[in-house]
Amino acid sequence: MLSKLRLLIYGMVLAMVLPLAAQAKTFYWISHGSPADPVWTYFLQGAEMWAKSTGQTVKTSFHNGDVPAQQEALRAAIAAKADGIVTTSPDPGSLVDIVKEAKQAGIPLINFNTPDPSAHFQAYVGTDLVVVGKGWAQYLVDHNFVKKGDFVWMPVEVPGASYGVEETKGIKEVFDPLGITYEVTETTLDQAEIITRMSDYLNANKAKIKAIIGLGDLATGSIKRVFDQVGVKAGEIPVVGWGNSLDTTSEVTEGYVNAAQWQDPQATSYLALTLAMMATDGVPPAFNITTGALYEKDTADVYAKVMSAK
Amino acid sequence: MQRLFSRPEFGPLVLLIVELVVFQSINSQFLSVLNISNTLAFSVELGLVALGMTLLMTSGEFDLSVGSVFGLSPVIMWSLFNSGALPLEAAFVAGLLIAALIGFVNGWFVIRLKIPSFLVTLGMLLIARGTALFITDGFPQRTWDASGQWLAEVLVGDFYVGPFRIYMSLFWFILAAVILGYVLTQTKFGNWVQASGGNPGAAQARGVNVGRTKIILFVLSAVLSAFAGIISSIRTSAANPNSGTGYELEVIAMVVIGGTALTGGRGTIIGTVIGIFILRIMRNGIVMVGVPGLAYNIFIGAIILGMMALHSGLERRHQSGN
User: Fold this and answer.
1) Dihedral Cα A46, A167, B287, B28, nearest 10 deg
2) Tens digits of per-residue pLDDT, A220-251?
3) Quick one: A31 and A109 in the same domain?
4) A11 is in which domain, residue-wise?
5) Is A309 at the interface with chain B, CB within 8 A?
6) What is the ipTM score, two decimals?
7) A258 close to A296: Cβ distance less than 8 angstroms
């Protein structure tokens, strides 16, 4: 009697689970970022939220800027017959062949966070980094913070990484014709080292720095601590830069940073996965989605709330 | 004077003085109160790690996991405190105990399983870093709730002497340097440390418990790294799971430049203190003299090579008795 009852329960559970299992698709979310980078934790959060809300399976991986490792992960996803893949571009041109392989296998491949037009992805979701850089430079010019002959300091965690390079291109478009000079310096990814290096540089060049553009989130999010260490008051030197961390939203609120760029990290992952799923349902996306907004003191709280909702 | 010249710390001291003179002559703000104050803030945090490493290297072993313990212990401490699981004092002790356990495991693997410390601590580096990432999901732990806590004030509170901003961490560093310097040069345990690194077989034959001595030093190295990491997390208002990445190599360089033998058997705490300031002042000075931002690493690398060449020359001269 008991064994029959058990059999019946097993049968009922299987009957409930099998249709669900049949419906669930598997997507791969593959990033060139680092799991230790606070911004990437928000991107990851978006992917996890999407999986939870839609009931689909999302397999995530980080590759710390290691191009061969990311290529291997993408090929593994193709070999595993993924229903869809969303990925960032670690370096321009590095995923050209893989995009072709995914197309041949009939797997939708959506690009997010870092664009690479040369690879011909099905769609791109994220910010245009050149436009972001241009926006920062234009903000400083429009608000009369910098003029011809002025010098702007641009700290970045990893010089040469695609995000800083693209942003600098945009900044150059605005500053070069106006005769505004600038210098990029390395902060590294280590918080104590960032504060030390930025404090040293600011201390040595305080007199000539008319504005600061934080090319990365850790650099911008360290401004308050650097200013406090060197004895610079909030607002004494205008600052713009990335604003994807709670450190920066509080800096904007307190007046240390004038304006910060929100990248919509959770939304970027969410939308990229949505496009991939749409493609698997036979509706191919033939458009890109641009995310992001430059915020000031009056709206900083909105983004702080988004980031606090862990 | 002859005694001063014959000391192993003489070469590094000359290097430090040369460095100070060159940077000050290029930028008169180099020895300004503000710059000295800023340089001391981070130097002493790395310095605490280097002091532990000096004793360990004197005993003939390495610890490559110091950087990840520097990151992991504050993450554990602040995770426990921020979640309300423990008060700050107990969370602080928990952070140090985890570090002590890591040091013990390192030592146990090296001594009992006879695996080279390079490999054991490389494995532990990955375990500790991965643990920090796993328990935080990659998010930095908030540390600004520490304001007003007596423990945070004792560990890293700051005060002004005239225009000079001094962090409490400087006193912890001085205290650790004095105690470890005394232990290494004036106590029986110090003799055991040097004997364990110089000739472990002979030391064992003369009754020195080489294994136990080394395990104690692995624990000390890990606990000092954790202590430095906790201090750093309060000062920088962030306990990042990736804090301390790459510190192990910088710390080993500080110890070696200071005059401790890479192969063990000879170590000097005074030399390490000088080595710490040689490397940190060099990084600060490069920025102060205004080298182009993206050329920073070229200059750092070139100066390290130049200093090591000068160090080697002074060392040869010292050993030949001139």
Assistant:
1) -120
2) 999 999 999 999 999 999 999 999 988 999 99
3) yes
4) 2-127+264-291
5) no
6) 0.71
7) yes
What kind and span of H or E run contains A215? none
Q: Cα separation of A175 and A239, whole Å?
A: 16
- Report helix, strand or coil for A209: strand
Residue A301 in any domain: the answer is no
- A85 and A70 housed in the same domain: yes
How many other CB atoms are found less than 10 A from the CB of residue B184?
21
A79 shares contact with chain B (CB less than 8 Å): no
Q: A26 in helix, strand or coil? A: strand
Report pLDDT digits (tens) over B49-102.
999 999 999 999 999 999 999 999 999 999 999 888 999 999 999 999 999 999
Within 8 A of A186 by CB-CB distance, chain B residues are: 293-294, 296-297
Q: Is A123 on the interface with B (CB under 8 A)?
A: no
Same domain membership, residue A247 and residue A192: yes
* Inter-chain CB proximity A203 and B29 less than 8 Å: yes
Is residue A183 less than 8 Å (CB to CB) from chain B? yes
A172, part of any domain: yes
Q: Domain with A218 in it: what CATH number?
A: 3.40.50.2300
Q: Do A38 and B139 lie within an 8 Å CB cutoff?
A: yes
Q: Where are the domains of chain B?
A: 33-287
Tokens of A6: 């058990």
Total of domains in chain A: 2
Structural domain includes residue A22: yes
pLDDT tens column, B10-56: 888 988 999 899 999 988 888 888 888 888 888 999 999 999 999 99
Q: Which two tokens stand for residue B252?
A: 């080993």
* Minimum distance, in Å, between the CA of residue B43 and any CA atom of chain A: 9
Q: Are the beta carbons of B245 and A200 separated by less than 8 Å? A: no
My answer on whether A108 and A141 are in the same domain is no
Looking at CATH, the fold of the domain delimited by B33-287 is given as ABC transporter involved in vitamin B12 uptake, BtuC (1.10.3470)
Within a domain: A298: no
Residues of B in contact with A161 (CB under 8 A): none
